[in-house]
Each structure stands twice: as C-alpha cells, then as structure tokens.
Amino acid sequence: MASSSASSAGAGYYPPLGFHYSVVFSISPHRDDVRFQSVSGLSVEYEMEEYKEGGENRFVHKLPVRTKYPNLTLKRGLLLTSVVTQWCMAAFTLRKFIPADLMVILMNEKGVPLRSWNVVNAIPVKWQVSELNADKSEIIVETLELSYRYFIML
Known about the structure:
Radius of gyration: 20 Å
Number of helices: 1
C-alpha cells in the first residue's frame, strides 16, 4: 500500500483523503473545539478589472486587482460548553468582535499533518443551529460562518 506522504513525482502517489482533519482556534485550548463535521470556504480568487483598449475590438484586457476570500463555514455537533461558541455569541450579543486566527490541519490516516491553512483574523458573521424536529432523531448541528482576511497555506 502506498504511503500518502510519498512524493507526487514518484510512483504510487495517492492524493490524501479529506476526512481526517482538525480545526485549532488561537482562542481555545479546549479539545472538543477542534472537532468539526465539515469545513468549507478555503478558496481564493482574483477580482479582475476590465480595460478596453481603443482600436482593439477582438478582446478586453483583464487585469488582476486584489484577491478575494469567501467566508469560512464550519459545521459540528452542538457543544454545550465551547469557548468558540462563546466567542461567537460575544460578537452577536455584545458586538464584541475579537479577531482570532485558526489553523485547519489535514492529516493522514496516522494523524500526521500533511497540509495546513492558517486563517488570519477571523470574525463571526453568522451562527446557526439546525432544525429542532420531534419527528427526526438527528444530531443538532451548529454552523459557524466566519469572515477572514486571508489564509496562508503551509
């Protein structure tokens, strides 16, 4: 069986699977605050500005202006005690916005880090809890949506 840490240039490389990861917040040492069901929004793109050159009708120049990062969405089973949830609620109830860094760490099957994304200056923009429904026996899912400045891939 090929190791996921094998060189991508070498034979037998297999891309890592996306189910073994953790999310570590700079504001929380609590071990349950690293367990999330899903993480989405690790993406970056350029905002482009169009420039029309006089006399050139075949195309429009597109020039990169700045990078854009979408909101980061984290989902997990509802925790009754969570420093991260308290941080979110402080923003929504007290308008106390304290930027926090967080690290999303992708690991192999042995728990060895393969890739990390350091998310800089995140603040909560939305908190949501899933539907409460007496007809279903489902785990209550808490969704955190965070705005952030940028991330650094390590």
